[in-house]
Amino acid sequence: MLTDGGIVLIDYKTGVVSVKDIVGETLLEPQLPLYALYGKHQPAMGVGIAQVRAGECIFKGVCATDADAHNTVKPLKGINSEEWEELREQWRSRLEQLAADIASGRADVKPAQAQVCQFCELHPLCRIKDTPGPVAPVREEL
Ligand code: SF4
Q1: Residues 70, 35 within the same domain
Q2: 112 lines ligand 1 (CB under 6 A)
């Protein structure tokens, strides 16, 4: 909890994560935005991923709060309250679209990263090799 009463939601990951997974165009970590918007711990004023990995322990995420409170969560990127509200609206829009896609049975073969397909054994099921053109971007900067 921040000194101004806001809550920062933190998820722990042992793999390499990126702040883009939360704030990027494609929501690769939708659970944190979901908790921030609809979770019982409110007011959510920031989200972060604690990357717990040998030699690479770090917090990544964003936090909207005043400068004093933000000092308690320094590793997170500070944003102002207007940016925080814009981010929440983006999350809401993407999550609602995702829910609508699931509810309508839409299941495009559209992995967020090409790398995940290398270790997947479901190629015959999703028929990704029959999908024309590049299907997924290769993950770059973290
Ligand atoms: S091979 Fe198909 S099912 Fe497996 S990760 Fe890629 S798109 Fe998804």
Answers
A1: yes
A2: no
